[in-house]
Every structure is written in C-alpha cells, then in structure tokens.
Amino acid sequence: MRVIRIDRDEFVAKVQANRDNHRAVFEAALEGYRDRWIQELERRLRDVRRGREINQYIGLPEPEDHTDDYDRILMMARMQIDNVIELTEDEFGMYVMDQWSWKPHFASTTSRYVRGRS
Hints:
The chain has 118 residues and is mainly alpha-helical. The chain is built from four helices and two strands.
C-alpha cells in the first residue's frame, strides 16, 4: 500500500497527540539541560576557586524543539477542504506513527536529560 486515505479529524487528533507528547518531552529535556548546565558551572566554579585546572569545553548537546514540524502539518490538515486526507507511506510514518527523520537524534539528546520519555 503506497497511499492511504484517512479521516481528517482522526488524523488531526493523532498528530496533535504526537505534538503534545513531543513538546512535553522537549520541555522536560530543556529543564534537565538547564539543571545540568548549572551543576557543571557550579562544579567548575568550585574548581576555579580551589586553583584546579579547568577544562573550558562543556559538551552538553542542547535539546531540539521540532514543534513547528507538527504545527505546520496540523495547520495544513485543518485547512484541508476535504474530510479525507491522502498520505503516502512515508507521510503516514512521519505524521501518524511519529517516525520523523530527526527522531533518533531527538531521542538520543533528550534521553541525556529525561529518562524514558523520548
């Protein structure tokens, strides 16, 4: 099956749920990211005050927010005149199954700050 026709309202509901989950994971990861920065800066400040050698590089990957990707497809679906939306297999994977090309990197980054929610 290469193309599927699905109900617009059902599609919007599913993409909205995926978006809301993505946003919640991102916000939790961002909070964890900021906490890690504070911990690292405080640790380095203690080291500076003690005269220890300081590594000036802090390698904390910043969580990425892809909420706009969801918002774009939601706007398109809501503006769709027909009550049926046609999706290719790849589009179905991204929008309905939440299998975006950026998803593995997003999961890898957020898992550093939030356990089990990517």
